[in-house]
Amino acid sequence: MDLRCRRRRQRGREVRGHHDRRGGARDPRVPGRLRRRVAHSEAAPVPVPDYTTLEFPDPPDDRPYVIVDMIASADGRTVIEDNEAGLGSRTDRRLLHELRLHVDVVLAGAGTLRATGASPRLYDEDLEALRLQRGKSRMPNGAVISASGKVPLDATFFTSPRFDAYLYLADTAPSARREAIEATGRPVVEVPADDAIPAMLRHMRSEMGARLVMLEGGPTLNGECFRAGVVDELFLTLGGVVVGGHGLPTAVEMLGVEVTRATVTRLELLSATPNPETDEVYLRYRVRR
Question: Where would you tag: which of 10, 64, 104, 211 has the fewest CB atoms within 10 A of its CB?
Fold first, then answer.
């Protein structure tokens, strides 16, 4: 046998018998770059953000710093069969509660109150303890704003003794509805119908001392706050599902507004974290001024 043949056979034995540094036999049919990607994906932990360590800027003098937190499908829908159930994972809910750790007020619209009960609770004793360590109340205050006062008085927002809550009511609402809400024991704060959002935030800042408020929808209230120019950040979870349909709400709905290039709100991306286990992406934006 000549020398060239022996070398070819020796090279074949070296390839078949070679082991990589992780202790497994290396398949010569798999390119090296792909092997490294597979090994990395098997070893690397899922990169879920830790919202307990977030920091936020100081608020303006006349209102709290306002963040919005929403979840939407990959095609932008925020509901399936009239609510958000089925869009988010446990991880998304955990991040929501971690955001509540930081805020003084959790704000919702009347539609969200009717759909969810509008509780601002953290549902985690460790998060509650962390709030106390930081000099905050055990949980944030709840707040709901309503133009009509047509709200379910048996909702958790009104019945739970676990948190304080305020109902902001337009001055055009019927007096009978205001009296019914006051009978629940929750304070009612009247705001002018034509300046409701700014007036509510001024009250939160001056009378409640609120520095950070989180808006949890619904889409119409989100749109009113964006339109009023009072939103500072948007936290958006994109779920790995396409809802489809027609006319379903998106994360921000601005009724009666003509959309042009001049009216859009520009955002600055602060972070984007994919979660391969849930097929979600966690986005944090700051509103450009």
Answer: 10
- pLDDT per residue over 65-82, tens digit each? 999 999 999 988 887 776
Under the banding of pLDDT at 50, 70 and 90, the label for residue 86 is low
The 3-class secondary structure across the chain, one letter per residue, is CCHHHHHHHHHHHHHHHCECCCCCECCCCCCHHHHHHHHHHHHCCCCCCCHHHCCCCCCCCCCCEEEEEEEECCCCCCCECCECCCCCCHHHHHHHHHHHCCCCEEEEEHHHHHHHCCCCCCCCHHHHHHHHHCCCCCCCEEEEEECCCCCCCCCHHHHCCCCCEEEEEECCCCHHHHHHHHCCCCCEEEECHHHHHHHHHHHHHHHCCCCEEEECCCHHHHHHHHHHCCCCEEEEEECCCCCCCCCCCCCCCCCCCCCCCCCCCCEEEEEEEEECCCCEEEEEEEECC
Query: What's the rounded mean pLDDT across residues 249-254?
Result: 87
Flag the least confident range among 23-37, 101-115, 146-160, 272-286: 23-37
